[in-house]
């Protein structure tokens, strides 16, 4: 396995856009949600804006785009991540876990004391995954007809909480080999 995680630049917007569309496509099953997920409706321009205004990571598995996540710091001293998606052929290879390890390390280094997310309650596998990583349900909310968990994980400020090699050169953040 050759996994490389990098900060997405403007030139990566089309790749991130397509990756999110493909990764979230399975959630269009009839009856799963009352309406389309916002991840499936976002435009290339919205992805470009997120790359300019937030942190967007792109994971490459054996030089193929495989996963992505977006995050940003909040004024209350926490951080939020969303749009975590891994393409189906690359799931169960540790990519989502590696992406979140980079996010957790970066926001802890930046001084965030907690990391937050929302996940639909109907996606029990996703909630179980986050629970295994130490996230806890803080609240159950409804937005646009979708009941979702608001999950939070406490972080140790200033501590990198992953075993990967951290790099900043040329936009590469983490390399994992195997």
How would you describe this structure to a colleague?
- With 178 residues, the chain is of the alpha+beta class.
- The chain has a single domain, classed as Gcn5-related N-acetyltransferase (GNAT) (Aminopeptidase), CATH 3.40.630.
- It is 28% helix and 36% strand.
- The protein contains five helices and nine strands, in the order βαααβββαβαββββ.
- The chain has helices at residues 13-24, 38-41, 44-53, 95-109, 124-132; strands at residues 2-7, 55-61, 64-73, 78-86, 114-120, 136-143, 146-154, 165-166, 172-177.
- Strands 6-7-5-4-3-2-1-9-8 form a nine-stranded mixed β-sheet, sandwiched between helices.
- Helix 1 packs across helix 3.
- It starts with a strand and ends with a strand.
- Residues 160-178 have low confidence and may be disordered.
Sum this structure up briefly.
With 178 residues, the chain is α+β, with helices and mostly antiparallel strands. It has helices at 13-24, 38-41, 44-53, 95-109, 124-132; strands at residues 2-7, 55-61, 64-73, 78-86, 114-120, 136-143, 146-154, 165-166, 172-177.
CATH homologous superfamily descriptor: Gcn5-related N-acetyltransferase (GNAT)
- Enumerate the spans where pLDDT stays under 50 for 5 or more consecutive residues: 160-178
Major sheet summary line: 9 strands, mixed
Look at the structure and give the mean pLDDT.
Answer: 85
**Named CATH topology:** Aminopeptidase
> What percent of the residues sit in helical stretches (DSSP H or I)?
25-40%
**Distance N to C terminus:** 5 Å
* Class by alpha and beta content: alpha+beta
Strand order of the largest sheet: 6-7-5-4-3-2-1-9-8
As a percent range, the share of strand residues is 35-45%
Query: What is the number of E strands?
Result: 9
Provide the gyration radius in Å: 16 Å
CATH architecture: 3-Layer(aba) Sandwich
């Amino acid at each position: 396995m050759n996994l490389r995680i990098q900060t997405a630049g403007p030139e990566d917007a089309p790749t991130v856009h397509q990756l999110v569309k493909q990764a979230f496509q399975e959630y269009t099953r009839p009856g799963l949600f009352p309406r389309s997920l916002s991840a499936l409706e976002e435009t290339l321009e919205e992805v470009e804006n997120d790359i300019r205004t937030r942190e967007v990571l792109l994971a490459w598995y054996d030089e193929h785009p495989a996963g992505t996540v977006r995050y940003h710091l909040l004024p209350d001293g926490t951080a939020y991540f969303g749009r975590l998606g891994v393409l189906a052929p690359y799931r169960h290879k540790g990519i989502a876990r590696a992406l979140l390890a980079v996010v957790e390390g970066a926001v802890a280094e930046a001084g965030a004391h907690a990391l937050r997310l929302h996940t639909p309650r109907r996606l029990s596998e996703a909630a179980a995954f986050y629970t295994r990583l130490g996230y806890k349900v803080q609240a159950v909310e409804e937005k646009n007809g979708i009941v979702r968990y608001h999950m939070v994980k406490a972080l140790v400020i200033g501590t990198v909480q992953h075993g990967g090699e951290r790099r900043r050169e040329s936009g590469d953040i983490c390399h994992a080999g195997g």
